[in-house]
Amino acid sequence: ATETASSVTPAMPLNVCIAMTQGYIGYHIQKGLTYALAKRNRILPVVTLITQVVVDPDDPAFLNPTKPIGPFYSEEEAKQLISEKNFTMREDAGRGWRRVVASPMPRRIVEIHSIKELWDSTIVVTVGGGGIPVVEKEDGSLEGIAAVIDKDLAAEKLAEEVEADILLILTEVEKVSLNYHRPGQRELEHLTVSECERYIAEGHFAPGSMLPKIQAGMMFAKTPGKQTIITSLDKAVASLKGETGTVISGC
To answer: Is 97 domain-assigned?
Structure first.
């Protein structure tokens, strides 16, 4: 939106846009949770925390940007953005040209100590949009960088750093499936890390959809005693009771 309106008001850097997204969406989640708790006569604070996530400036993802962002442009407009702003632009399935940015791995959550301080007494809405990607400079300061961190991988990093026992990933389906929307579709109740690796190699999980969820689930479940559950929002409670969902564990 800021690029579209750049003739009227200066476009904002991507890291600032992600910060605005965290605040905007976080506000609505915070308001919804507060209302739901009040209806159940539960008094529990809810807070949204703007969160930065450190990435490695030498991450290979920066050499091959793949994450499309923003509006579609004509080829002429795309060439102008490449020339004037040094954007990486790619044609998108005949629909026009879009800017693409890197999607680096999350390395560290900057505000993790604040999250832990709030954790015991407050519902914390955090790491929205995958977190604001920043790089650490030689003097220890942080600088925003044009990138988008995958939200599932950021959630895994959060679960790891707060030492959670379970990473619950909510999506549109109740269980992970092989041959999704194809003949022979089969729902999976349990996956080991090695099975995940095999199914990924066989191409069962779509990039940008189920694949990052499986990858995040594997990373978390590699730690002994940890497990990931993937299910739909309406089955969240049932999945934590062991009644549904797909569980990923180390063995």
So the answer is: no
